Amino acid sequence: MEEQAQREELLQDAVAAVDVVGVILGCCRRDPRYLFGAYEWLLAEGLEYTTREYLKLTDATRRHMSGREIALGLRQLAQQQFGALARDVWAHWGIRRSRDWGEVVYNLINAGLLHKTDHDRIEDFDDIYPVESL
């Protein structure tokens, strides 16, 4: 048990040491289609909202989310937060189709901030909804 606690503490220290802003800026440099705000919103609000509000998962039931679930959760959060301006906010960030959220997620996976399973594909974000419908 003590060994597990030490491992968890080391993991928390490693996570705290990650320069999230720097990693996101690196993603923006490598893929300038998407603005910093898209990455920040996804990480700071979107994934947590999708987990807790859209999927109704708790700490005990928390699990890996599919691309479809993420995209649908992000749409619901945008509608709640931005209302009629949701499409304009997303367009400003470079999000013009559900696949764009997949591109953002995979940029974060490639940067080491998120992870995927062997079953995940970027195509999981394709054609889930038209952004114009926000």
**End-to-end span in angstroms?**
48 Å
Largest sheet: none
H-E order: HHHHHH
Helical coverage, percent range = 55-70%
Concise overview:
This protein has 6 helices and no strands.
Structure overview:
- Helices cover 62% and strands 0% of the residues.
- With 134 residues, it is mainly alpha-helical.
- It has one domain.
- The longest helix has 19 residues, at 36-54.
- The radius of gyration is 16 Å and the shape is globular.
- The termini are far apart.
Summary tags:
single chain; 134 residues; mainly alpha; 6 helices; globular
SSE order and pairing:
Blueprint: H1 2-17, H2 20-30, H3 36-54, H4 67-82, H5 86-93, H6 98-110
Helix pairs in contact: 3-4
